[in-house]
Write a structure and sequence with these properties.
123 residues; mainly beta; 4-stranded antiparallel β-sheet; 11 strands
């Protein structure tokens, strides 16, 4: 069992920046691929970013590539999502997830999920 708790979501203006954090419980954090997903009202859940167990490889959705950066600190059992140049279409509930699958873009492949944190970008 893994517990994930996101934080850092808030209201920001277009062009602003935020850093989201996801704190994980347990001693096996470094064994999981970690991902960030987002979901806006009336929309399907969307893959945002993922990072491998040791942080050596990252993947991003085309919509955020070049603007968002995922990172992890295994000593702190924490994964981060740095978001720059925010747009109105980035408004969503952002959730972190833990899994072992190679299909990092598929939300159904993750085993554990946080409660989500709201990011709202003014337009």
């Amino acid at each position: 069992q893994v517990q994930l708790v996101e934080s850092g979501g808030e209201l920001v203006q277009t062009g602003g920046s935020l850093r989201l954090s996801c704190a994980a419980s347990g001693r096996t954090f470094s064994s999981y691929v970690m991902g960030w997903f987002r979901q806006a009202p009336g929309k399907e859940r969307e893959f945002v970013a993922a990072i491998t167990q040791s942080g050596g490889r990252t993947n991003y959705a085309d919509s955020v590539k070049g603007r968002f950066t995922i990172s992890r600190d295994n000593a702190k059992n924490t994964v981060y999502l740095r978001m720059n140049s925010l747009k109105a279409e980035d408004t969503a509930v952002y959730s972190c997830a833990a899994g072992t699958t190679v299909y990092y873009w598929n939300h159904a492949s993750y085993s554990y999920w946080g409660q989500g944190t709201q990011v709202t970008v003014s337009s």
